[in-house]
Amino acid sequence: MFNHTKLSKKPKQFLSVTGLTVPQFDSLSKEIQKQYKDTEVKRLSKKKRQREIGAGRRFDHSIRDRILMFLMYYRMYTTYDMLGMIFDLNKSNVMRDIK
Fold it and tell me: pTM value?
């Protein structure tokens, strides 16, 4: 499976597929992780819910890997099918992660 850890060992390829250097990506992902939980609670509390926030299936990949997938999508504009093969996900899961 493709992930941040494997790709970060190859800085030139990392820059090529994301448009960011590894230190830039690490800085960005730390900033996103700080704000992620509060943003998700705010987003999910806008509608009437049957279950509590946080209930349900967990994401298959870490936030860092989902950020990587997002950056690859916008940098290379590849299809959800292709990203699904790279990250070992169904294309509908890729679509939800990017959304």
Answer: 0.77
Q: Tell me the average pLDDT across 43-72.
A: 79
Spatial distance between the Cα atoms of 99 and 93, rounded to a whole number of angstroms = 10
Mean pLDDT of the chain: 86
Asked if 52 contacts 44 with a C-beta cutoff of 8 angstroms, the reply is no
Provide the H-helix boundaries in the chain: 4-8, 11-18, 22-44, 63-76, 80-87, 91-98
H/E element, 94? helix 91-98
Residue 42: how many other CB atoms lie within 10 Å:
10
Q: How many angstroms separate the most distant Cα atoms in the chain?
A: 46
Q: Which pLDDT does position 24 carry in this prediction?
A: 96
Q: Which two tokens stand for residue 77?
A: 């504009």
Report the alpha-carbon distance of residue 22 to residue 3 in Å, rounded.
13
